[in-house]
Amino acid sequence: MIPIAQPPSLSDFGHDPWWLVLGKIVFAFVVALLGTLLGVWFERRVVGRMAVRPGPNQLGPFGLLQTLADGLKMAFKEDILPKAADKVIYFIAPAISMICAVTMLSVIPFGPMVSIFGHQTPLQVTDVSVSVLVVLALSSMAVYGIVLAGWASGSTYPLLGGLRSTAQLISYEVSLGLSIVAVFMLAGTMSTSEIVAAQGQGVTLNLFGAELPGPGWFALLLFPSFVVFFISIVGETNRPPFDMPEAESELVAGFMTEYSSLKFALIMLSEYVAMVAMSAFTVTLFLGGWYAPWPISIWSGANSGWWPLLWFFAKVILLVFVFVWLRGTLPRLRYDQLMRLGWKVLIPVSLVWIVFLATWLKVQDWERNDRLVVFGILGGIALIAALFWPNRKPEQKPTVAEQVENRPQGSFPLPPMDLQVPPSPRTRRMVAEREPANVPAGQDSEEV
């Protein structure tokens, strides 16, 4: 069992002096800002490595100052305002996504109880009994910045990108919420700090009467929920291969086509802040939060003091690398594939997994004989379903000759089946003029 070092609870919040609360807020903001600046550099370096090229390497050590130079360049670019734009919403929209993404970090636990200038306080800005729902609400509100940016630009392509973002949010918000239900069922709480504490304490699995200690990370205990959740947050943050609201190859630049200068930079940075915030949210729900991974957890002091802050950010960086890895390896999905994955795969899988998990947790409370009977009935139903499941035979495709015979009248003429293209009229005339004597009697020269 992983040693515990005073995990915070809801009663530990609300007692800090004002300067300590302000320091925590500044710390969360700095994490978001540095995560954005380093995230852009990290993505360019990793994708460059995957593409066998150096990436940014001129400004500063390892090119670390390249992102700062790009930010200064954007600040001095000309700020263009389209004539058909709604000026108020056009200016407000980029800030909405940025504010929602930064606010998500306020309920993320960065570490356990620590001592700061003699005050025992948790490394977390605040926590409430429904902190997970707060993050989901902020994630849903962030899409308003994209939709309003596309609508307020007064242009066709931004509007289309904003509409795509709305459809994408509806598709993946449902599966995102369903995947977290399993975490609520196992942890028994919606507080982020208490969910982390539940993973640190580990769980006990009651398997056929035998109590076995299980690992604490919900990513292992609830692996289907973890997979569905991670795919959903990639869609929520509009990251490749789910970047349909932008889709530069077909929509110029999507919802931010008409933006420039600092407003364009704000939209771009909000995407990276959301990526860091959702990575931290994933670490909190499924990867043990600030608890040290094995075998580091064997060390008795791994989960005490300021060390948990290191384990937390190491996990976040690992997930950010996965985001970048997906961008460097997977092509963008078609829009119909995007919708099909959300509605026909992720949502059914989440529903089936929740029903199975609820049944399993309920069966654990029964006697051994009752559990055997239930498992026997479920196994028999699964066997019968597998044996008698209707198997659709693939329809035989008609041959080429049948397609030619069944084509409607007046349709577009088909090329010759032997792929021998007949000569053009000009060629036939030239042949007829050069060799008129070679034409057999009774045959038209145009048929040569």
Automatic annotation (TrEMBL):
Subcellular location: Cell membrane; Membrane
UniProt KW Cell membrane keyword: yes
rRNA-binding recorded as keyword: no
Keywords linked to the UniProt accession: Cell membrane, Membrane, NAD, Quinone, Translocase, Transmembrane, Transmembrane helix, Ubiquinone
NCBIfam families per UniProt: PRK06076.1-2, PRK06076.1-4
Subunit structure: NDH-1 is composed of 14 different subunits. Subunits NuoA, H, J, K, L, M, N constitute the membrane sector of the complex.
UniProt name for this protein: NADH-quinone oxidoreductase subunit H
